[in-house]
Amino acid sequence: MNQMMNGWIDPVIFSLGPLQVRWYGAMYVIGFLVGGAILKYLADRKFWPLSKELIDKYITWLIIGMFLGARLFYVFIYNWDYYSVNLLDSFAVWKGGLSFHGAVFGMCLVSYFFAKKNNLHFFHIGDCMAVAGSPGLFFGRMGNFINGELYGRVTDSWVGFVFPGGGPFPRHASQLYEGVLEGIVLFIILFFVHKKQKFYGIVTSGFLLGYGTFRFIVEFFREPDSQLGYYFGIFTMGQFLCLIMIILSFFVYRLAKKLNFPTPYQINN
User: Fold this and answer.
1) pLDDT digits over 215-259, tens only?
2) How many C-alpha atoms does 153 have within 13 Å on its Cβ side?
């Protein structure tokens, strides 16, 4: 079992009176900064189909869509039994409760409207979001790890950590598993895929397939939401949502091939 200094990492970086700067929030800021830098790289290569000046506006849209989608999914899908009788707590985001599947849905929705506003198809923006957004998954999961939340199931393996609030037994650091697979491995895959594909939509399909597969696997190590537990004695709500993503990826792939919107790599060749 790994030993952490002073029991655990302090989630607060520093305090200024009542104001606290936390690692969790800092990780999201870093994720969006990295994503913005990647979008500018894609703009230089003409894969981002709009001007660089619109990148900051798009990121603002993404932030809004991410938090709204993440919160709404958590309230209505993961914990509606509680919020249906505590409606005001639906707005108490400081108490926690966000769904990544909801965040993806929210970002896809605002990307659709952003593309439509700029006379583009969703695939033009969705592919860029998939490449640029993947590293943010790594930083987000690191924030979860530092917060000691969304931990894994109990294990007697040497890789276990004793999480604050997770009881006395070591648990899988499922946040780290997700961060590496969804944030690093998936980004590497999508980055090389985007350079090889000659029409938009393939990267979007690849993100849905890759994230859905990696998350489905890690869910076997992650502690399920206490209010939901297991379905059929083994599966979690997260895995059912991942299956939807995996199935949807094949429809997106077929539609992308049918529409055949050329990337700058195809045009240049």
Assistant:
1) 999 999 998 876 677 777 788 888 999 999 999 999 999 999 999
2) 11
Residue 7 domain-assigned (yes or no): no
Domain annotation covers residue 13? no
Question: Using CA atoms, how far apart are residues 43 and 169, in angstroms rounded to an integer?
Answer: 48
User: To the nearest 10°, the Cα dihedral for 195, 131, 43, 202?
Assistant: 50
Look up the pTM and report it: 0.86
**Residue-wise pLDDT tens digits, 87-124:** 776 776 666 677 877 888 999 999 999 999 999 999 99
Asked, for residue 34, whether it belongs to a domain, the answer is: yes
15 within domain boundaries: no
